[in-house]
Design goal:
By secondary structure, the protein is mostly beta strands. 10% of the residues lie in helices and 48% in strands. The protein has 2 helices and 4 strands. Strands 3-2-1-4 form a 4-stranded antiparallel sheet, with no helix packed on it. A hairpin with a 3-residue loop joins β1 and β2. It is elongated, with a radius of gyration of 14 Å.
Length: 80
Amino acid sequence: MIFPVALEILDAFKVFDVPNKQYLSNRGLVRMNICITDELISLEVEVKVVIHNTRDIKTMDSSAINNIHAPAMKKDLASV
């Protein structure tokens, strides 16, 4: 079985709507849900950040057509 081993979100500070990319380098918990079907790849990400001494949770939901024929799977990942 194939498992995702890396993910890069380009311009992540814009995607997560934080003022500056430095806020993401000092992040807390990251939760990620990846769901792949024969037709669709969907990704849900939750990142805990501290912005100006205030804790906040930023989220991202994205999906794309599975035109690379990735095998169907569902995985929940977390990073501290």
